[in-house]
Automatic annotation (TrEMBL), chain A:
Keyword annotations of the record: Cytoplasm, Exosome
Entry GO terms, CC: cytoplasmic exosome (RNase complex); nuclear exosome (RNase complex); nucleolus
Family matches, as InterPro entries: ExoRNase_PH_dom1 (IPR001247), ExoRNase_PH_dom2 (IPR015847), ExoRNase_PH_dom2_sf (IPR036345), Exosome_comp_Rrp42_subfam (IPR050590), PNPase/RNase_PH_dom_sf (IPR027408), Ribosomal_Su5_D2-typ_SF (IPR020568)
Native species: Macrostomum lignano
Keyword S-adenosyl-L-methionine: no
Single biological process term from Gene Ontology: U5 snRNA 3'-end processing
MF-aspect GO terms: mRNA 3'-UTR AU-rich region binding
Protein name: Ribosomal RNA-processing protein 42
Protein family per UniProt: Belongs to the RNase PH family.
Taxonomic placement: Eukaryota, Metazoa, Spiralia, Lophotrochozoa, Platyhelminthes
UniProtKB/TrEMBL annotation, chain B:
Species in which this protein is naturally found: Macrostomum lignano
Cell compartments where the protein resides: Nucleus
Gene Ontology molecular function terms on file: RNA binding
Family matches, as InterPro entries: Exosome_RNA_bind1/RRP40/RRP4, KH_dom_type_1, KH_dom_type_1_sf, NA-bd_OB-fold, S1_domain, S1_RRP4
Major place of residence: nucleus
Name of the protein in question: S1 motif domain-containing protein
Family: Belongs to the RRP4 family.
Length: 251, 367
């Protein structure tokens, strides 16, 4: 994103002084809102807005456990579908669409990067049936990964009664950015463009670290990275508590 | 790093569950505050505005011919009539007669609110791209450094241009522009820099030509940019506000608003802002944003009132929609009572409100 040098410096110094641009503390999340069951054609769907970042996630599970996607695609494969097969575990297939934000190269790059990062993070999750997670980005102001994971988890929990997926396995991602000597969570777009590096951790509801991803132009010392991972795990556990309470309330 | 116990309160993530039928986030509804529009004042494209000859068509209006004898206006009829006129010879003599006979009317070509100034009748759209007028103060971002000019994003339909001759260079009166100046343009303004400028002229294609030939315009230093709908920025004498809390606020007519700590009087390079200053800047920024999302017109009074109301709350709270609504509502009520206190009775037959207050604000809410 195009920023002037004084602006960049201002964001950097603000984070060092622990007064972010919107007045938040370094480790505070923005107000999030969750809406469930918006789409009738999806197995489950959820919309999460985290500040100006707005994601709509639809989760579809293939109806036929045991059949691969290829078999389902071919016509008249009833026989193949009825075959008893060994339980197969499938990776989660992620698709990110940024067309609501515009059709420019920046939006496309955002979508491509988000898809690559989320696919890689969701490799920790294997499902008995193929699961397709489609993410539509309705607004963007940073922290797409966390918002998408909250929405996807909420949707997957809604789909649970019909599925063989266990609730414990669903990961939530927490992204921690490092700006100067400070860590921040839930960075907005300006802060992301000033960040040196980020660590995204995926944690399941038992507190087990299941995914860890680093990205960014800067380099991190080992101690800094472990601190960021610890912060991420703590925040992801808080996210788990909140999401679980909300979904339980709806169920 | 340990965070203090009370920080954990704001740290804790609160996810709000929103029902399917629930309207979230709730924004300010001006109708609830008793603002009413006369039906005449809001128009959609095609609406007849007036048949009276005394009005000059302004922006957002078009003149069309009405079929003589019938109350209906149709473009086809107008075109037919024009063709007949073209075919007829002796046009010069017939001109006067045509004006007497052919009825015409002014109609709206955009959706918006009618605005009458003396004899000029125009329609102001509630939400449109910033068009730009001569003398407007705008805040723009440099996109490109080209030969002897900068191309600036000013939130308009086209990029704005700032010529090398339109900036104030050091030692201005004492030297001519030289080749060195051309090569050293990036030292003045580089890509990504924010600059406050004034619109010098509007080209035929609608693009703006800016200038910064005044000490108060120029590159903006530490601070942040807030983007709001241009229609909400109320035109006033000055757009540079030095607020008592130590924050400088520049409300660009193009919707780009800039908040930063007020630099000190010393000649030393801008010192780093203190955490207290940053907190104030964050608060002003949050106030501008909350007024914008609730369609309250932005000018120094409204921002200051929002600041006063929001002074006690922690700044992070001002990003929450319910808190934003609360503050915006209080500000809107105060502004309306002030407006009523000063209002002159009535307006034109076109439902003119003494409320410039209402112009951009409620209209964008209507949209």
């Amino acid at each position: 994103q195009l920023l002037s040098e004084p602006e960049r410096q201002y964001i950097f110094d603000s984070v060092q002084d622990a007064v972010r641009i919107d007045g938040r503390q370094c480790l505070a999340y923005r107000q999030a809102a969750l809406r469930l069951d918006l789409l009738c054609y999806a197995t489950a769907s959820a919309q999460v807005s985290l500040g100006e970042t707005d994601v709509l996630v639809s989760v579809r599970e293939e109806d036929n456990p045991g059949a691969t996607a290829q078999q389902q695609g071919s016509t008249g494969s009833v026989v193949a579908a009825a075959q008893q097969q060994q339980p197969v575990s499938h990776p989660v297939s992620v698709w990110v669409d940024c067309s609501c934000l515009g059709s420019g190269p920046e939006q496309q790059q955002l979508a491509d990067e988000a898809q690559a990062h989320l696919s890689s993070l969701y490799r920790c999750l294997r499902t008995p049936t193929p699961v397709f997670v489609d993410i539509l980005l309705l607004g963007y102001d940073g922290d797409l990964l966390d918002a998408a994971s909250i929405a996807a988890s909420a949707a997957l929990m809604r789909a649970l009664p019909a599925s063989l997926l266990s609730a414990q396995a669903l990961p939530l991602f927490a992204t921690v950015h490092r700006i100067g000597s400070q860590q921040i969570v839930d960075a907005n777009q300006l802060e992301e463009s000033c960040s040196m590096a980020r660590v995204t951790v995926g944690v399941d509801s038992n507190g087990r670290l299941v995914a860890c991803q680093t990205c960014g132009e800067g380099s991190l010392q080992f101690e800094s990275m472990t601190e960021m991972i610890e912060t991420g795990v703590r925040k992801a556990m808080m996210l788990h508590d909140s999401v679980a309470k909300l979904v339980a309330r709806v169920l | 790093m340990q965070s203090a116990p009370d920080d954990e309160e704001l740290d804790s993530l609160s996810i709000r569950l929103v029902g399917l039928d629930e309207n979230y986030p709730v924004r300010l509804n001006w109708n609830d505050l008793g603002v009413q529009f006369s039906k005449q004042s809001i128009v959609v494209p095609g609406d007849r505005l007036t048949r009276s000859r005394e009005f000059i068509p302004g922006h957002g209006t078009l003149r069309r011919t009405v079929e003589a004898g019938s109350g209906n206006a149709s473009f086809a009829a107008g075109r037919r009539q024009k063709q007949n006129d073209d075919n007829a010879e002796d046009n010069d003599e017939d001109d006067e007669d045509e004006d007497e006979e052919g009825a015409w009317e002014l109609a709206a070509s955009v959706a918006g609110r009618q605005h009458v100034v003396n004899k000029l009748l125009c329609v102001l759209p509630g939400r449109s791209r910033y068009a730009g007028e001569i003398g407007d103060v705008v805040v723009g971002r440099v996109q490109e450094v080209a030969s002897r000019r900068w191309r600036i994003d000013a939130n308009a339909r086209l990029q704005a241009t700032l010529h090398l001759s339109g900036v104030l260079l050091p030692g201005e009166d004492l030297r001519r522009k030289s080749e060195e100046d051309e090569r050293a343009m990036r030292a003045v303004l580089a890509e990504g820099d924010l600059v406050s400028a004034e619109v010098q002229s509007v080209q035929a294609d609608g693009s703006l030509v800016l200038h910064t030939r005044n000490a108060r315009y120029g590159r903006l230093g530490q601070g942040t940019l807030v983007r709001v709908p241009p229609a909400l920025i109320k035109r006033s004498k000055t757009h540079f506000h030095s607020l008592p809390c130590g924050v400088t606020l520049v409300l660009g007519m193009n919707g780009y608003c800039w908040c930063g700590p007020t630099p000190g009087q010393s000649d030393v390079r801008e010192p780093l802002a203190s955490p207290a200053d940053r907190s104030e800047v964050a608060r002003v920024r949050a106030c501008v944003r909350l007024l914008a999302v609730n369609h309250v017109p932005l000018y120094d009074t409204s921002v200051m009132q929002a600041y006063e109301v929001a002074r006690e709350s922690p700044v992070a709270l001002l990003s929450r929609p319910d808190e934003q609504l609360r503050v915006a509502r209080l500000v809107a009520e105060q502004l309306l009572t002030a407006e009523v206190g000063e209002a002159q009775p009535g307006g034109g037959g076109f439902g003119l409100h003494s409320g410039d207050l209402i112009s951009g604000g409620a209209l964008s809410a209507v949209h």
